[in-house]
Amino acid sequence: MNREETLLQNFQDVQNALSAACKKTGRNPQDITLLAVTKYAQDQDVLFFLQKGLIRHIGESRVQQAWTRWTGEDFAKYPVVKHFIGHLQKNKAAKAAQLFDFIDSLDDFDTALALEQHLSASKTLRALVQVKLTEKETQSGLPLEEARALAKQLKTLSRVKVCGYMGIAPQGAPEAELRTLFGGVKRAFDQDFPPCTERYLSLGMSEDFITAVEEGSSLPRIGSRLFAANLEVL
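Predicted structure:
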């Protein structure tokens, strides 16, 4: 297969896996939003998916790199929903508030305040609180109960609108552990963000998104499964 055929096959494999996970658990596939993690992808690959109309929500983790890409002539014309999925430093809040539609990794109220201060009066910035699901010291996020407290605090802001949780599971964790971790966040999510509101639960990446969707994720983050050259069949 050539590169474009590989990308199309990758996308179809992901869609098939999402559909199968929904069918298994009785979920509506329309309730799942695919977040394409574009931060490490080649420009031409991202442009291919955009030109085909296959992706709309994209994820970046470096503010300056994302700014250069998404304000450039080749990319700016596409009506994408831009998610910041890395650890946001407060000194990058002004640019992040201008560029992104979602901050999916908030774990600090001061950063949220900085974002709000830099938002134009006409813009609402969606935010997810990052729940820490690993023991890694380098992993951002908050333990679940602290994340829930921050979400409650964020609801006092006017233009930063908290609407869910994000979590990154331990790499290579067995399925039983993943289900326990994801299930715990899902229960908190259902209590803190009622179904009648705008809400997003972002669990699952390329290696564990099927389990995450089966456990209730509505915004899985898929990077390598879309953009890698060689993949095992899902």
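Summary: The chain is about 45% helix and 15% strand.
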